[in-house]
Each structure stands twice: as structure tokens, then as C-alpha cells.
Amino acid sequence: MQVLTTAALIIIGVLLFEFIIFAHEFGHYITAKKSGVQVNEFALGMGPKIFSFKKGETTYSLRLFPIGGFCSMEGEDERSDNPRAFTNAKVWKRMIIIVAGAVMNILVGFVLMFIVTVFQGQFIGTTVTAFAPYAYTANAGLEVGDQIVSVGGYSIANSRDLSLGIQLLPCENVDPQSLTVYKQDCCTEAMHYLYTMRDDLKLIDDDMMSALYYQVLPPVAAQINRATSKEEAYALMQQVIDQYYTVAKAEKPKDFAYPVIEVRDSRLRYMGDVTVIRNGEKQELKDVQFFTYKPSEDKTAVGIDFYLSPKEKNFATVMEETFTGTVSLAKSVWKSFEMLLRGRFHLSDMSGPVGITKAVSDVAAVGLQSSFGDAVLNIVMVMALITVNLGIVNMLPFPALDGGRFVFLLIEAIIRRPLPRKLEYIVNGVGLALLILLIIVITGSDIFKLFTGGFDTIT
To answer: Count of domains in the chain?
Structure first.
């Protein structure tokens, strides 16, 4: 049964990927037809033909490898005297044909995001409603009722933006002796002491620990967050530990001692400026520290240590979440390029077909832990990201990409005459060779990571 389930998910993934390619090429195809440009072949897949048929002037074919497709227009890549050749169409028509593929990708991304949104259990807003007891952000300036609109300069329209904005913050060393860090440690030690009482001292069970965590710790943690001195913060930590014993009706062990707040040489924190709307006014909070932890010895991660307001699910909010979700995907693609140029991402962080297949497999496996439907929705979400990514990347002003071709057309429209076709063919040929080389390098890197365990595991 597991084999059949996995096979079904693979088929769904391949079909969705081919649908993305079909939509892109169909954008070129339909606008070319409407513009009077001759389309010689419309193909889905690459490599040898499995079957094909001809209708009118166009051959429609299905090819062996489901890794792409193409719309071959007369005169697109070579000189042609045909009056219906691509190069002989008016420049504004050629511009529309070139951008149509990317537009279709964005539209498909919207449709896939709509599907994910419709089946989403609940919607989460961007307004803080409460803090976890150990909240770093609570003693770094964030307050209940704050509507977060920007994190580290990254605009926030929904909870997906917020999560990504926090992930993109720089992780920096902060003053290990600051009051903010000390209060964070007091809250964390107060929380950890509950685990000590349960696991080491065997004084409380799970039910009592839950009661202490949710009823006793939060109000005192909030007081610690507002403390104006280390002495006040430490006294409050002692107070809440005493309350644990009182509420649990447990006796302190003979060797009882309050936790010692350790002062380290350095402390890492994901940190950045946060813009919020507080009491109807926009306010900027400087250097807000977010919950930072180490999942392993050599890695540092960041988490959200506060709760966000729920949103009612209705037609209006479904459409809102779909639109902002699609925009969020587009923003994340542009942000990735920015981070790549700034050196925070490297070529080794990029993935090609192998890496994408691995990612789809991982998200499907995570979804299967709950249901087959969740696995499918996870795949649909990844495909939404891929199609938006494809649309944006294709419009980058790089030779051989649609964006590079559009630049040539834009220059032609400005100077009112086409650039030498030979120059365009050479530039696009060089660009294509560089793209193929890049794909080979990235695919080789993906294969290496696949066999050496270099891919990050999605959990």
C-alpha cells in the first residue's frame, strides 16, 4: 500500500510540474496565435517524440522526458522571410508573446495557492495576542496588540511573510551581560525548572506540569519581561519556582537551590528592527531579539515565541489570503536573489530538478504523516512556489531567458529599429550555453548532496 501511495504522489507531482510547463508555453502559444505568428510546434516534454499530430500549420507533440516543453515559432531563433515569422511581427506584439509565459505562471501560482488556501484549516493574522512564557520578543519591545507590518525591512502582509521575514534576519552576537539577555535567561530557567521537577525530581506528573506551565508561569514571566533590573528579574524567577512547589503541594528537596544565571562570553540572537501598528499608530522597535536556539551543535535556528490572532474563514479572507500568499511567493523569490547577490546564499544552496524532486518527496512524506490529502496539498504548495519562481526567473534580463529577449525588444521599441539579428542570436546562444552549464553544475551538486546526505531534511 505504501508503494502505491508513493507512486501516486510521484505521478501527481510529475503531472503538476508538466501542467506548470504547459501553462508557461501555452501563454506563448495562444498570444502568438492571436498575434498572427506562425507556431511550428507545441511540445510537452523534451527528447524523442512519443506521439504527435498536426493540425493546420502546427505540430502538437508529447515527448519522452517530462522535464520541460517548448513553443517553437517561425523565425524565433533563425532568419525567416515568412511574413508571419516572429521577427516580422510588430514589436509590441512580440513583447506580449514574450511576457505571456511568465504571466501564465503567475496565474497558475494564484490558482494553486487558492486550492491550498481553500483547504487550509484556519487563517492566522499578524497581530500579537499573547506571548510564550519564555518569549524573547516580549522583553525586547514587542507587546500584545501589536500588528506587525515589517521585520528587518521585509514587509509583512500575512503570517507566511512574518515567518520568512524572521528567518531572513541576521544572527548576531549581542551583549551577553545585557538586561534583555538576563531576563530571557530568567524566563527560560523558570520554564526549564518545570522539566527538572517532572523528569529529575519526580515531583509532578504531566497534568500538573501543564497546569503550572499555562497558569502559574505566564503571569510571572510577564513581570520578568517588565523588570527594570537584574535583581528584580532574578527575584521574580525565584518567586515563580516557589509558587510551583506551593501549587503542586510538593516539598523542596534537601539540596534545593535556585538556578544560577550563567553569564557567557557571547550570545547569538536573530535580531532586527520591527515596525508595528500600536494603538493605531505606526511605531518602529529597534533591535528586537527573537527566540534563538541551537537544534544541533553547529546550527542556530530561530522560532516565533508569540501567538497571533486568528482570522475568520470566509470568501473574502480566502481571496485575500490567496492574493497575499501569491505575492509572498513572488517576494520570497526576489529576496532569494537579493540574498544570493549579498552572499548570504551561495550557489550550493540552489537546487535543480534533482533537488526539487527531493523537496517534493520530503513535503509529501511529511504530509503523509497525517493524511494522503495533506501530502497532496503539500505538493501543490511546492508547485505554487515553483511556478511563481519560474515566471519571475524567466523574466530576468539574462540572455536566452524571456527577460533577456524582452530587453532586446525594449531597445528596439526605443530606437525604432531592430538590433542586428546576428548579435541577438550570438548573445542568446552564449546565454543558453551558460544556463546549460549552470544547470549541469547545480544538478551535479544536487546528486552529490543526495548521496552524501547534504540536503536539509524537512520535518
So the answer is: 2
pLDDT of residue 361: 66
Q: For residues 18 and 195, what is the distance between their CA atoms, to the nearest angstrom? A: 50
Q: What is the mean pLDDT of residues 187-207?
A: 93
| Residue whose C-alpha is closest to residue 293's, from 453, 183, 184, 164 | 184
**Are 28 and 6 a contacting pair, CB within 8 Å?**
no
Report the alpha-carbon distance of residue 410 to residue 416 in Å, rounded. Answer: 10
Domain presence at residue 334:
no
Strand, coil or helix: 126: strand
Same domain? For 235 and 373 the reply is no
Whether 439 has a pLDDT exceeding 90, the answer reads no
Cα separation, 366 vs 54, whole angstroms: 43
Contacts of residue 71, Cβ cutoff 8 Å, sequence gap at least 6: 25, 26, 28, 29, 32, 39, 41, 42, 43
- Sorting pLDDT into bands at 50, 70 and 90, what band is 42? very high
- Identify the domain containing residue 242 by its residue range: 126-310
45 Ramachandran zone, left/alpha/beta (phi>0; psi -120 to 50) = left
**Tens of pLDDT along 241-294?**
999 999 999 999 999 999 999 888 889 999 999 999 999 999 999 999 999 988
Which of these, 215, 219, 221, lies nearest to 189 by C-alpha position?
Answer: 221
